[in-house]
Specification:
- With about 500 residues, this protein is α/β, with parallel strands linked by helices.
- It folds into three domains: about 240 residues, no CATH class; about 100 residues, no CATH class; about 100 residues, no CATH class.
- About 50% of the residues lie in helices and about 5% in strands.
- Bound molecules: adenosine-5'-triphosphate (ATP) and magnesium ion (MG).
C-alpha cells in the first residue's frame, strides 16, 4: 500500500477533537461522525434506548441526531443533568418503607406527565402556529396551567410525585385513595388533550433526548425508580404518535445496578441498542478526524481524502520498531477497551509528546511510549470510578496485580482472588462486596470491568469483554491483564 508523507506543518495544527461529544459537536463532529448501524437504527426509530459504556459515544449519537432533527425543522428537547438531581429526589420524597409507595410506577406516571407537559409547552411556545388541529386546546391548557407558574423541569416532576405521595401516604379514606390514584396514574389532568396533541403531531415533530443519567448516580431507591420509571414512560410515550419520540441513554453498569430493569428486560430488549466498536470502525473514526483537521487548516486535503484509513493513520503515527508499517494502530487500539474517547485521548497525548521533541510527522513510537504511563494511569482510575457504586475500592483490587507477570493460569488467579476475598491481601474500601465474592465472581467482575482478558482456546487470542459479549469464563484456563493497564501497574512482558 502506498505510503503518504505529510507536510511537517501538519504536526502543529493536527487535532483529534475533544474527548466529549458535548464539546465536539460545536467543532465539527457532524462532519467527522461515524454513522454506525446503531446510529441508523436510532435514527429510524427502530431503537430508542441507547446503552453504552463511558466514552463509547452515546452523547455523540444524540448530539448528531438532535442537530439533524433541528435542521429538518423538528422541535428538539434535550434533558441533561441539571434537570435531575438524585440527591434532591431522595431528600424530598418519603422512603418506600414509609408506606405502599411502589415508586417505579409513581415515577413512570410522573415522567409521562413531565414529558407531555414539556412537549406541549414546546409546541405552544410563542410564535408557534397552533391554530390548526388540536393547537388551541393545547395552547389554552399550557396558558392556564403552566403559564404564570413556570416550574423548572425537576420541579414539575417532583410536583407530580408529591401529588402521588400525598394520596398514597396521606390520611385519605381507602375508597377515595384508589379513585384518586387511578386519576393520577391515568394523567387525568392531560389525558383528554392527547387526541389534540396527536393532531398537532400530524404535521409537527418533537424529539426528546434524555442523556447522562449517570451523573450524580447514587444507587438510591429514588435513583433506581427514577430511571426504571423513565424506561416505562418512554415505552408508553413512544407508542402515542410516530412524530413524538423519546430517546434515553444509559450506561451498562447503571442498567446492571437496577434490578427492576434487567428483570423486566424482555419489555425493553427490542428497543435497546448497545454501542459497540471494532478495530476497523475505530480506525475509521481517527482517520476521519485526521482528514477533517488537515482540511480545516488547509493542508493536503486531496491526498488525505484519497488515502485509505490505514494510510492516513500511518502518515501520522510511526510503527513500533520491528513491526509492519501500520503497526502503531494495533499497538494503540490494543491499549483501549474499544471506546472512541480512549483512542482520541491516547492519540492526542502522543501528539503532544511528539510536539515537544520533533518537528515532523509521523509521530515517533517513542512519543507514544512516553504518553502511555499517564494514559494508562488515568484509564485505571476512570474504570474504577465507573464502578464506584457497585464495587467501591476497585482500584485497590487492580493494584494487587502491580509488578506481577501479565498472564495467569486459572488456579493461580483463583488463589489470588481467594486471598483478596479473605482479606489476606489487604484492599481499601471494598468491605461491602469483596468478602462475599467467590473466585469465579471476582474473575467475572474483573473481566467485565476490562482488567482481565481471557483465552478461550489454548494458544489462541486473549479476549476482553469489549470484544465478545458472552464467554464461558468458567471453562477458561488462562487469563491476562489487559495491555491498557500494564504501564500504570508496572507489568512487563518477560522475554527470554
Ligand atoms: N460515531 C462517532 N463518530 C465520531 N466520533 C464519535 C462517535 N462516537 C463517539 N465519538 C467521540 O468519542 C468521544 C466520546 O463520545 P461521547 O462523549 O459521546 O461518549 P458518551 O458515551 O456520551 O460518554 P459518557 O458516558 O462519559 O457521557 C467524543 O469525543 C465523541 O465525539
Ligand atoms: Mg455522554
Amino acid at each position: 500500500m502506498a505510503k503518504l508523507i505529510l507536510s511537517p506543518k501538519i504536526l502543529n495544527v493536527l487535532d483529534f477533537g475533544t474527548p466529549s461529544a458535548e464539546r465536539d459537536i460545536s467543532r465539527g463532529l457532524e462532519k467527522y461522525f461515524v454513522e454506525s448501524a446503531a446510529y441508523q437504527r436510532l435514527r429510524s426509530g427502530a431503537k430508542t434506548i441507547l446503552m453504552g459504556n463511558r466514552g463509547a459515544g452515546k452523547s455523540a449519537i444524540f448530539k448528531v441526531l438532535a442537530k439533524r432533527e433541528r435542521a429538518a425543522g423538528s422541535h428538539v428537547i434535550e434533558l441533561s443533568p441539571e434537570d435531575y438531581s438524585y440527591e434532591l429526589l431522595s431528600s424530598t420524597l418519603a422512603a418506600e418503607s414509609a408506606g405502599s409507595w411502589v415508586k417505579q410506577g409513581a415515577y413512570a406516571a410522573a415522567w409521562k406527565y413531565l414529558i407531555y407537559i414539556l412537549v406541549m409547552k414546546e409546541l405552544a411556545k410563542k410564535g408557534m402556529r397552533l391554530t390548526k388541529g388540536g393547537g388551541r386546546e393545547i395552547h389554552r391548557y399550557i396558558r392556564d396551567h403552566h403559564g404564570a407558574r413556570q416550574l423548572g423541569t425537576l420541579a414539575l416532576l417532583v410536583s407530580y410525585l408529591k401529588r402521588l405521595e400525598a394520596v398514597k401516604l396521606g390520611p385519605i379514606e381507602a375508597g377515595l385513595r384508589t379513585h384518586e390514584l387511578d386519576r393520577l396514574y391515568k394523567l387525568e389532568e392531560i389525558h383528554d388533550l392527547l387526541p389534540s396533541l396527536c393532531r398537532v403531531l400530524d404535521d409537527q415533530r418533537v424529539v426528546i433526548f434524555v442523556d447522562e443519567l449517570d451523573r450524580g448516580w447514587d444507587s438510591s431507591e429514588d435513583a433506581k425508580a427514577f430511571v426504571s420509571g423513565l424506561f416505562q414512560a418512554c415505552v408508553s410515550i413512544n407508542g402515542l404518535h410516530p412524530n413524538m419520540r423519546v430517546y434515553v441513554s444509559l450506561r451498562q453498569e447503571l442498567y446492571d445496578d437496577i434490578p427492576a430493569l434487567y428483570e423486566d428486560a424482555q419489555k425493553h430488549r427490542d428497543l435497546m441498542e448497545k454501542i459497540s466498536w471494532t478495530e476497523e470502525s475505530l480506525l475509521e473514526l481517527i482517520a476521519k478526524r485526521i482528514r477533517y483537521s488537515a482540511r480545516e487548516k488547509g493542508f493536503e486535503a486531496d491526498a488525505l481524502e484519497r488515502a485509505e484509513d490505514r494510510v492516513c493513520w500511518s502518515a501520522v503515527f510511526a510503527p513500533p520498531p520491528g513491526t509492519s508499517w501500520d503497526g502503531s494502530f494495533a499497538y494503540m487500539v490494543d491499549r483501549t477497551l474499544y471506546r472512541p474517547r480512549e483512542l482520541i485521548q491516547f492519540c492526542s497525548e502522543a501528539l503532544e509528546q511528539a510536539r515537544e521533541r520533533t518537528t515532523r510527522l509521523p509521530v515517533p513510537h517513542s512519543a507514544i511510549e512516553r504518553s502511555e504511563y499517564g494514559y494508562s494511569a488515568e484509564r485505571a482510575k476512570d474504570i474504577a470510578a465507573e464502578y464506584r457504586s457497585q464495587y467501591p475500592g476497585l482500584l485497590s483490587v487492580f493494584e494487587v496485580f502491580r509488578g506481577r507477570p501479565p498472564a495467569f493460569g486459572r488456579d493461580e488467579l483463583e488463589l489470588l482472588c481467594l486471598e483478596l476475598a479473605c482479606g489476606d491481601i489487604p484492599t481499601r474500601g471494598t468491605a461491602s462486596w469483596l468478602a462475599s465474592c467467590d473466585p469465579d465472581d471476582l474473575i467475572e467482575i474483573l473481566w467485565r470491568a476490562g482488567l482481565l482478558a481471557a483465552q478461550p482456546a489454548p494458544g489462541g487470542r486473549f479476549l476482553g469483554s469489549h470484544q465478545v459479549q458472552h464467554l464461558n469464563l468458567g471453562a477458561v484456563r488462562r487469563f491476562r491483564v489487559h495491555e491498557m493497564f500494564h504501564a500504570s501497574l508496572g507489568i512487563a512482558e518477560r522475554t527470554g
